[in-house]
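User: I've been trying to design a sequence by hand for this structure and keep getting stuck. Would you show me what you'd pick, starting by listing the structure so we're on the same page?

Assistant: Good idea, let's start from the same input. This is the structure you sent:
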């Protein structure tokens, strides 16, 4: 029974994250973090990039809720999970986030030491400004999009379609990723259609091909 309940909660969290920008519900954040922790998915190596950049965007949008959300959970999180939450805050790269990190450090000695370490790091590069050199960067861009619905993240994927051979991941991976995300997110299809005329011929051809596949699906 506990397993079924856990699986049901994880499905609920995944749907909440995947479609967050379509129906934002920040009140669910504590339950989501607690549920991901319970299922050992908050800091899991296969999910941590997505979680970092998703929660980074949520934290940036709601700086006044961080302490309220996180402080009651601190004692229930593993050290790695505490680091994940702190890193997500650091990635949001705002003065509010830095203030929140200092406050959270006051609740936990180990977390305080990690926050000191983060404070010595150079400011993080915005994910949309990074080269898509591996699938983790791609995952981070999509996580940021899911949390915000902001078109700049789709623009970054489109720009990479014309960057093969410059350190970006293989073109086929980018096309497949954009295709699959577009199937689930009409907003992505709309953004691609709006940008089509502004693209070089090779990228325009890719977007037109994807548009045809999306129309077949519809």
């Amino acid at each position: 029974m506990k397993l079924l309940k856990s699986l049901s909660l994880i499905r609920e969290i995944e749907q909440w994250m995947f479609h967050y920008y379509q129906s934002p519900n920040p009140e669910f954040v504590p339950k989501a973090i607690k549920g991901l922790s319970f299922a050992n998915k908050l800091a899991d190596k296969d999910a941590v990039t997505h979680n970092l950049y998703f929660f980074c965007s949520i934290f940036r949008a709601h700086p006044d809720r961080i302490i309220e959300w996180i402080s009651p959970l601190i004692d229930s999180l593993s050290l790695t999970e505490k680091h994940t939450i702190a890193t997500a805050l650091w990635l949001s790269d705002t003065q509010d986030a830095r203030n929140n990190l200092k406050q959270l450090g006051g609740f936990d000695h180990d977390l305080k030491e990690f926050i000191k370490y983060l404070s010595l790091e150079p400011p993080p590069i915005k994910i949309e400004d990074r080269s898509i050199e591996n699938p983790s960067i791609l995952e981070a861009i999509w996580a940021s999009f899911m949390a915000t619905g902001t078109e700049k993240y789709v623009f970054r994927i489109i720009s990479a379609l014309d960057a093969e051979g410059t350190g970006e991941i293989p073109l086929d991976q980018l096309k497949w990723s954009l295709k699959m995300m577009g199937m689930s997110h009409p907003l992505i299809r709309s953004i691609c259609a709006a940008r089509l005329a502004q693209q070089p011929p090779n990228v325009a051809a890719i977007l037109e091909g994807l548009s045809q596949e999306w129309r077949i699906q519809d």
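That's my pick for every position. To get oriented when you compare it with your attempt: The CA atoms of residues 107 and 126 lie 28 Å apart. The radius of gyration is 19 Å.
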